[in-house]
UniProtKB/TrEMBL annotation:
It is found in: Cytoplasm. The gene is glmS. Residues 290-429, 462-603 form the SIS domain. This is Glutamine--fructose-6-phosphate aminotransferase [isomerizing]. InterPro entries: GATase_2_dom, GFAT, GFAT_N, GlmS/AgaS_SIS, GlmS/FrlB_SIS, Ntn_hydrolases_N, SIS_dom, SIS_dom_sf. Residues 2-221 form the Glutamine amidotransferase type-2 domain. The active site is at C2 (nucleophile), K608 (for fru-6p isomerization activity). The keyword Endoplasmic reticulum does not apply.
Length: 613
């Protein structure tokens, strides 16, 4: 979850690293640091807090000219956020410096052994243990640092992406990965390393994605990649399609607000080249080779975390309604710990915005070992999940920088809806007339999202009224139950207000005890098959003096007379309502968080890409 950046070449390293860390700060912002080969030797500068704190600290030291350096922005795992626990970390002799993203599970065993050998530790981190273990291998095997890294990795248990500098090799960087992402940017006589491509795209669009159990050595302007078994591989250079403008705020106050407002375009981009309603065409290239397995599957298993899990819950309704195949939606973080029953007749869909979610990757590996077919739905080209699955579809939502997912959710549902329609049509469980109608309606969603976004000012007024509330309840039924969960999650993530999402009918089985005149209750009460039931639930809350905010279908008059506030969204097919009903909930959480003075893009304790278990 931490962000790492490194550079070696002819440019000044520090400005590149600082800018890169700022672009990666959504991955962690507890502390930051850099290591440089400057006039003082191999020097480390680090500071608790955001990258701006590090930048202010570095200003005290004057010119720190260096053509090589490594940098890190931290999401704390082992040890609290402070200057000492910040990365990079030195070896004992201070000849090596290392940055690390991941968790070393056997660090305690390694540390105990190193202490017996006389090593001392300044920090509480597993990362300091890691570099000193590499140092110990280096000293005791009389080998090169590159070889010491390779040997050490055979003994390390856990996840890592590391980059190491060596005082005695001022033009060399050594990197390795397992379970945590690492991208190498290839320029002219220069190289950039980072946790993802956002710090690299400004300088080059040529990248190499390092695979698990690979070690990269950059020396004398040359890149060499070997496996930890010491087998050299030929690096495959990918061309990035990302534009620099996509990772800038573009005039918006926050990335989250920008990404909320990008949804008409991101959903359209997701459908572009795939959906042609006029001619009744729906093409998902990633499914082509596995369509037969998909339509003959006995069961679909969807595995994901967080917002992606909510998208998976929507997909459960979609697949069961249109394709008539049973679906199970699993938390990836629990999936492999309960010895699940999986067979080669199962079709597993793994959903992840980043494509790097550690729990989802672990679930994929388990399902693959049981013979299931794995299909990935993710946003980041070249990500670990994209490479670990048998096939997949990219959402094409563009970079999502805000920690709280918004456009990723609607893009994922868009892909999953197209998959469900394709599968239902292939299986003959929806008629051609119904299929054509649904394609046509799905094609209208971007324009309807654009219309829903115009309610922003009204939602801002509602937010002002409830910004000081201590609790919220979100209720929905059917397709809108996952939307209630997602709305509650968004509010929790960025405003730190306690919120819970429930199926509306479950309110009477406990949560109704919480309702009084201080409790705002958000209902998703659109005109669908559950409408009358939800209206009854609204009346139950109103009878107990709850404050009601209702998301309704445009033109609704029934709920308007019951609710304290109504938010009207365009009418659409019931199956596609989540793509619209979630929009005002995103806006509501955003405005409440801003009014409360919260850091919307970088909420406390969270990071964008959860690459550790």
């Amino acid at each position: 979850m931490c962000g790492i950046v490194a550079y070696v070449g002819e440019r000044e390293a520090l400005p590149i690293i600082i800018k890169g860390l700022k672009r990666l700060e959504y991955r962690g912002y507890d502390s930051a640091g850099v290591a440089l080969l400057d006039k003082e030797g191999l020097s480390i500068y680090k500071k608790k807090g955001k990258v701006s704190e590090l930048e202010n600290h570095l200003a005290k030291f004057g010119d720190l000219g260096s053509k090589i350096g490594i940098g890190h922005t931290r999401w704390a795992t082992h040890g609290e956020p402070n200057d000492v626990n910040a990365h990079p970390h030195y070896s004992s002799n201070e000849k090596f410096a290392m940055i690390h993203n991941g968790i070393i599970e056997n660090y305690d065993v390694l540390k105990t052994d190193l202490i017996k050998k006389g090593y001392e530790f300044r920090s509480e981190t597993d990362s300091e243990v890691f570099i000193k273990f590499i140092e110990d291998v280096y000293v005791n095997n009389y080998c090169s640092l590159e070889e010491a890294v390779r040997l050490a990795l055979h003994k390390v248990v856990g996840a890592y992406a590391i980059v190491i500098m060596n005082l005695e090799e001022p033009d060399t960087l050594i990197a390795a990965r397992k379970g945590s992402p690492l991208v190498i940017g290839v320029g002219e006589d220069e190289y950039f390393l980072a946790s993802d491509a956002t710090p690299i795209i400004e300088y080059t669009n040529q990248v190499v994605y390092l695979d698990d159990y690979e070690i990269a050595v950059i020396r004398n302007n040359k890149l060499q990649i070997k496996t930890i078994e010491n087998v050299e591989t030929n690096p495959y250079i990918n061309q990035l399609e990302m534009e620099l403008e996509a990772i800038e705020k573009g005039g918006y106050e926050h990335f989250m607000l920008k990404e909320i407002n990008e949804q008409p375009r991101s959903i359209a981009d997701c459908m572009r080249g795939r959906l042609d309603a006029k001619n009744g065409r729906l093409v998902l290239g990633g499914l082509r080779d596995y369509l037969n397995k998909f339509q003959n599957a006995e069961r679909i298993i969807i595995t994901a975390c967080g917002t992606s899990w909510h998208a998976g819950l929507v997909a459960e309704y979609l697949f069961e309604e249109f394709a008539r195949i049973p679906v199970e939606v699993e938390y990836a973080s629990e999936f492999r710990y309960r010895n699940p029953v999986i067979s080669e007749k199962d079709f597993v869909i793994a959903i992840s915005q980043s494509g790097e979610t550690a729990d989802t990757l672990a679930a994929i590996e388990l399902a693959k070992s049981k013979g299931a077919t794995i299909f990935g739905v993710c946003n980041v080209v070249g990500s670990s999940i994209a490479r670990a699955t048998h096939a997949g579809s990219y959402t094409h939502a563009g970079p999502e920088i805000g920690v709280a997912s918004t456009k990723a959710f609607t893009a994922q549902i868009s892909v999953l809806a197209m998959m469900a329609l394709k599968l239902g049509y292939q299986r003959g469980t929806i008629s051609e007339a119904r299929y054509m109608h649904l394609l046509a309606e799905l094609e209208t969603i971007p324009s309807k999202v654009e219309k829903a976004l115009k309610l922003n000012d009204k939602i801002k007024d509602i937010a002002w009224e409830y910004k000081d509330s201590r609790n919220f309840l979100y209720l929905g039924r059917g397709y809108n139950f996952p939307v209630a969960l997602e709305g509650a999650l968004k509010l929790k993530e960025i405003s730190y207000i306690h919120a819970e999402g429930y199926p509306a009918a479950e309110m009477k089985h406990g949560p109704i005890a919480l309702i009084d005149q201080e409790m705002p209750v958000v209902f998703i009460a659109t005109k669908d098959s559950s409408y009358e039931k939800v209206v009854s639930n609204i009346q139950e809350v109103k009878a107990r003096k709850g404050r009601i905010i209702a998301v309704v279908t445009e033109g609704d008059t029934t709920v308007k007379h019951m609710a304290d506030h109504t938010i009207e969204i365009p009418e659409t097919e019931e199956a596609f309502v989540p793509l619209l009903s979630v929009i005002p909930l995103q806006q509501l959480s955003y405005h409440i968080a801003v009014m409360r003075g919260c850091n919307v893009d970088q909420p406390r304790n969270l990071a964008k890409s959860v690459t550790v278990e």
